[in-house]
Amino acid sequence: MQTSDYCGGMAPTDEMLESLRKEKPFPEKELFVRIGTVNKYSSRVLQRFVSDAAGRFKISLPPGVYCVIEASKKDELKLPATTKGNAPADQSSATDEDCLEKCYPTSNKTLKIGKQNLKGVFIKFLHTCTPPCVTGGPPIA
Predict the structure, then answer these.
(1) Do residues 133 and 66 make contact, with C-beta atoms less than 8 angstroms apart?
(2) pLDDT tens-digit profile of 6-26?
(3) Beta bridge partners of 50
(4) Backbone dihedral angles phi then psi of residue 56, each to the nearest 5 degrees
(5) Phi, psi for 23 (deg, rounded to 5)
(6) Interatomic CA distance for residues 76 and 70, integer angstroms
(7) 140: Cβ–Cβ under 8 A, 6 or more apart, which residues?
(8) Which of 2, 60, 100, 113 is least surrounded by CB atoms within 10 angstroms?
(9) What is the dihedral of CA 76, 126, 129, 20, to 10 degrees?
(10) How many CB atoms lie within 10 A of CB 22?
(11) pTM, whole model, 2 decimals?
(12) Other CB atoms within 10 Å distance of the CB of residue 95
């Protein structure tokens, strides 16, 4: 499922804001599964799956605890070789590298699977105006 923030421009109507807040299917969302509750790059990816046109997916896992992550968190975080926390003078926004180092190991969804099948699991994503861990930049109107 997905929702969105309002990111500026003309003043939105109440209907526009309600539409953005309403949960909608997230078709063709690529996700990955690792063992455990933390996204450890040393743990291999067990499964890759993609939601269908209606935002649904079906996977099969044995009992255990699993970390579900989106594609942007699958590979090891590689930060640019810059001074930590500083952006070039000509850049209006900077990436907070400490934030990224804390964010990337987090799971988008933790699944605890027992002997019974899990049904109706929802993974929710919020589309924000500013990417996570980005600081500065022009103000949102």
Answers:
(1) no
(2) 998 889 999 999 999 999 999
(3) 30
(4) -95, 160
(5) -70, 135
(6) 13
(7) 7, 8, 129, 130
(8) 60
(9) 160
(10) 11
(11) 0.76
(12) 19
Q: Which of 5, 3, 59, 53 is nearest to 31 (CA)?
A: 59
Chain segment 68-125, per-residue pLDDT in tens: 999 989 998 887 765 455 545 445 456 788 888 888 899 999 999 998 878 888 889 8
Nearest to 47 by CA among 58, 34, 36: 34
SS3 content of the chain, % helix, strand, coil (to 5): 15, 25, 60
What's the token pair of residue 133? Answer: 């861990």
One-letter amino acid of 1: M
Domain range summary for the chain, segments of one domain joined by +? 2-76+92-133
Distance CA 62, CA 48 (A): 15
